[in-house]
Amino acid sequence: MIEREWNDDQPIYRQLKARIVGLILDRVLNDGDPLPSVRTVASDYRINPITVLKAYQQLVDEALVEKKRGRGMFVSKGARTSLLAAERRRFLEEQWPAIHTTIKRLGLSATELLAAEHDNEAPDASGGI
Predict the structure, then answer these.
(1) Domains of the chain (ranges, CATH numbers)
(2) pLDDT digit string (tens) for 78-124?
């Protein structure tokens, strides 16, 4: 479920957190679904359990995951909705202005953009964390 490669651009716990967020956004993990145990992730992906715990704790702090004593960690109810709202806001504030400027500069029409999007569609390839 978790992608096995890590990059040097940012700490592993941030990459792990981002991958879990991606799985929630992509509906691979849904409300109430359990996360793999800290020990399992640490063992399977050869990372320190403290690194996994740090990623999980950030998800708990952001109310995306909840701890159930003695049972593990589970995706919180409404986590995807909350993430979508935040990601949409971030996209519109941070990425869209530059994209919009490029579209205008190149004189691209909505028809051309939709055709390009259709031409670039690929089969869904669900990946891991």
Answers:
(1) 1-129 (1.10.10.10)
(2) 999 999 999 999 999 999 999 999 999 999 999 999 999 888 875 55
The closest alpha carbon to 32, from 70, 62, 64, 55, belongs to: 64
How far lies 72's CA from each of 12, 66, 96, 110, in Å? 21, 8, 38, 47
Closest CA to 30 of 71, 68, 83, 67: 83
- In one-letter notation, the amino acid at residue 111 is T
Count CA atoms closer than 13 A to 89's CA, side-chain side: 6
Could you tell me if 55 and 102 are in contact, meaning their C-beta atoms sit under 8 angstroms apart? Answer: no
Amino acid of residue 82: S
